[in-house]
Amino acid sequence: MNEGLRVVSNYSPLVHHSSSSSMSHGRHLCLPFLNFHPTPLFHTTCSFLLRHSVTMGTHDKQSNTRTKSASMQPMTGEVVAESQDISTSGDSIRRRFLEFYALRGHRVLPSSSLVPDDPTVLLTIAGMLQFKPIFLGQVPRQVPCAATSQKCIRTNDIENVGRTSRHQTFFEMLGNFSFGDYFKKEAIRWAWELSTLEFGLPSERLWISVFEDDDEAFSIWHDEIGVPVDRIKRMGEEDNFWTSGVTGPCGPCSEIYYDFHPEKGYSDTDLNDDTRFIEFYNLVFMQYNKNDDGSLEPLKQKNIDTGLGLERMARILQKVPNNYETDLIFPIIEKASQMANVCYALADEPTKTKLKIIGDHLRAVVYLISDGVIPSNIGRGYIVRRLIRRVVRTGKLLGIKGDGAGNKDGTMLPVLAERVIELSPQIDIDVRARSPRILEELNREEIRFKLTLDRGEKLLKDMLDNALASAQETGTVPYLSGKDAFILYDTYGFPVEITTEDAAERGVSIDMKAFDTEMENQRRQSQAAHSTVKLTVENGGDLTEKIPDTEFLGYDFLSAKAVVEGLLINGSPVLQVSEGSDVDILLNRTPFYAESGGQIGDQGFLYVTDAEKHLRAVIEIKDVQKSLGNIFVHKGTIREGIIEVGKEVEAAVDKNMRQRSKVHHTATHLLQAALKNVIGQETSQAGSLVAFDRLRFDFNFNRPLLENEIMEIENLINRWIGDATLLQTKVMPILDAKRAGAIAMFGEKYGDQVRVVEVPGVSMELCGGTHVSNTSEIRGFKIISEQGIASGIRRIEAVAGEAFIEYVSARDNYMKQLCSTLKVKAEEVTTRVDALLEELRMTKNEVSEVRRKAAVDKASVIASKAFAVGTSKKIRVLVECMDDVDADSLKSAAEYIVDTLQDPAAVILGSCPGEGKVSLVAAFTPGVVDLGLQAGKFIGPVAKLCGGGGGGRPNFAQAG
């Protein structure tokens, strides 16, 4: 209990907005900012307990787990009196939910990243995602039950955002989860208590849905909770039976709905009627496993997975007509209204819809970029880019110009994002610290998209010009095809609303039916991808019941005795493996580091000896990976003898390879610290590799590093190495680590307790990797490359330690060879090379001049081959091949000939300067150009026949 309250205590009782004054709809919503009048109501945790008449459970002191009876009761423990706010603000709702379940024995866990550690899902779409391995039985539970407030992103209904009262791309899912601890009775009872007692919802306004065959849930709701039969609806499998996929964990659902219009009575009620009901709490009773044949078998461990939509509960408690007008989103909408110079309360529905889109999408974009997702054209990056472009397009339609404050060349996204960041501390404490990078990325992406919009406007103008010209020729009504309008929308991000407005102004109609067809096809494709969380009970499930987590000894030891717990060949378990075979080995304990956090796995050997210490088997370990949670898989080859399950082995890590990885890992921390010192604190890691021969570090930055910056980074790191600083490593609660300033690595998952590696005065990071004891062990550091790998992402590769010595030695040998070849000292190499390059340049110029003169001489001979074409006006034409003349010489020859021929004249020359290469030149005199012929347009199609391309001016063009 103390641990649970310790985590919850992070939710400090801040002053919140009262619903009566801040969200009374329509009275003061036109003000530039919401004029909230906080009326905080504080009370102690003890009074919280008294209000709910809670009876404390008991603990089994031996096992530190709750007794059976305690599953219905809060955990016992010392309760510290604490002021508590019971207002209806979004922050208060979130805190009260987590405290409610903490007092009932749930461990409050942090939200996981929006980038899931799950290849089946593009983004985190549900609160249960971080617990998927536990539900699958792949990893043992760390706690019997948990509660979270999870950031989520769903884009499969993006077209409904702003148009309905409840669809959002970004939302928070409050959830309570049981991993075999409690089940239906407790889940239902607590959901009801939370809704009616904690949040004070009138019980007569709450409706319940249950799966049609779930008599147990129906009985609990009616007989024990007291919900009238008329307000409990049995619903079919499509609505109230949750499945993870074709096979895997599944079970019936029960949902709680709020009734906005109880005066309509009980007859002909439809819980899917959005105008009357909103589902705000979903309880999934995960009690079955679906087999391949569709049959259901009871799970050994029954689980609870729930989700309560924070924005939906805020809408109910704050008495506003939709999720967008809650205090979680509306401040963003009001800022957008101010920038667009409109009053939200007086605006028409289309305008309100646009403002809602901005409010919703900006939240999603800010949190995605904070979690490391950068706009791009693929995967998660495409989702960010699409949302950003929707906001920019929508802002343009609303009339927002520039930054909304008079600077028409400014950008709107950073201004709006500032408001999102202001609202972020209780959702994600890291967003504010990452705000410089978020704002910079938004500014850059908006500028880039505005250029795209400009191109779209030019394309639309051309399309409309062509439509009008075609209609004039055929005598028909001018129109633009739906496909063209969709290409403008989808490919160039050009709003269809602007397309229709511009077309209407010029009298051009649009085939909107065809446009809608194209849009529907895209929507179906979007919905088909990554819209559900896939759970599958795999063959490894049985293995995890037998194989415990591997005990890692590698921080302190490089060799240790261990027992072989399992052997796998091609994923299938075996009892023994003989010489020459590749095998995956599972040990009960190991000094080998398994690949994680960017650091590759250790290498080394396993030795098997008999009672007399005679060597019986040698297994070379080439790699170590983590699988099924925290089980280390040693990938190796049997070099001698036979290895068997149950045998004891001596596990020995290759000390040299380990030292190399330790050096590179600590150097990576120093590199990140140096980057922040030299180019700015806002830069952050976007990926890394810690290998034996080098390190690789990806970071957020929008330009190449300058040479002097690279030198400054190297000098700074080498100075820290020379300081011979002792590293400090400690384990602490993750919230304490973040408060202390420890940096978390993007994409890594952390538990409640984290390992912090600190180079005092230089760097402090959350890291599970292996590190040197003293910076002097790194010996030296050198950056070997710096390059861009994606929009806004740079990559540095570097060497340190032994790899640094090898790199410097190799470069020194190259220099010695160069000095020997050039017959100069090392310090004279640059001067000598510059002189050689100048000599080469002059020689090339001389050769080019000789070739040019030769080509002109040849041209003077073939000029006489020109022939006349045309009847009324004779044109002198010359078409000739000049063998292997290079492109520059061919150009000189064409210019010479066209100058010698009488106007009008056209010269087309070709050559083959190398194997598989063709050069073409077209030169037209002014008289030919005046006839409407252009060299650039002429040469292009000819070049295509040769498998090439080219173009140029009306009078001169080249191709190849």
UniProtKB/TrEMBL annotation:
Primary location group: plastid
GO molecular function (one): aminoacyl-tRNA deacylase activity
InterPro entries from the UniProt entry: aa-tRNA-synth_II/BPL/LPL (IPR045864), Ala-tRNA-lgiase_IIc (IPR002318), Ala-tRNA-ligase_IIc_anticod-bd (IPR018162), Ala-tRNA-synth_IIc_core (IPR018165), Ala-tRNA-synth_IIc_N (IPR018164), Ala-tRNA_ligase (IPR050058), Ala_tRNA_ligase_euk/bac (IPR023033), Ala_tRNA_synth_plant (IPR027522)
Enzyme Commission number, as recorded: 6.1.1.7
Stretches the record annotates as Disordered: 58-84
Any single Gene Ontology cellular-component annotation: cytosol
Catalytic activity: tRNA(Ala) + L-alanine + ATP = L-alanyl-tRNA(Ala) + AMP + diphosphate
Pfam families per the UniProt record, alphabetical: DHHA1, tRNA-synt_2c, tRNA_SAD
Keyword Nucleotide-binding applies: yes
Ubl conjugation listed as a keyword: no
UniProt subcellular location: Plastid, Chloroplast; Mitochondrion
Coiled coil: 826-853
The record's free-text note on cofactor binding: Binds 1 zinc ion per subunit.
Keywords, ordered alphabetically: Aminoacyl-tRNA synthetase, ATP-binding, Chloroplast, Coiled coil, Ligase, Metal-binding, Mitochondrion, Nucleotide-binding, Plastid, Protein biosynthesis, RNA-binding, Transit peptide, tRNA-binding, Zinc
Domain comment as written in the entry: Consists of three domains; the N-terminal catalytic domain, the editing domain and the C-terminal C-Ala domain. The editing domain removes incorrectly charged amino acids, while the C-Ala domain, along with tRNA(Ala), serves as a bridge to cooperatively bring together the editing and aminoacylation centers thus stimulating deacylation of misacylated tRNAs.
Annotated protein name in UniProt: Probable alanine--tRNA ligase, chloroplastic
